[in-house]
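Much of what follows relies on a compact textual record of a protein's fold. Here is one such record, which you should read through line by line:
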Amino acid sequence: MTIDTIIESFGYLDDWEERYRYLIELGRDLPPFPDEARTAANKVEGCASQVWLLSRMQPSPEGSVLTFQGDSDAHIVKGLVALILAFYSGHTAREIATMDAGALLSDLGLSDHLTPQRSNGVRAMVQRIKAEAARALVTN
């Protein structure tokens, strides 16, 4: 699912219970995460729930394009993983460096409705993704 589709769908949902259900649905739609990738190296530190993230880098004429795969052991967090991955995945490292997930969460109204622990977890995911993008920029 694209980030544009997700943003559009959020616009149709009136109350927060519906939005949380939609987040859970997004998490259920994530591709299966490989069991062998549930390692300490792929675990995102700073999340209260367990969150794992894999990144792949593919060269392109515009620079390295990063794609991400993720998972969590908590339903709402897994939905947040899906949202963040839809936002960042498929962009170049240079683009990722300038993208603002905080603005996305604010535009969707999520920043006002996430617990501090979940907000910290989202920040940790974003930091990890931006670190992967920074590594890709150095290797090119």
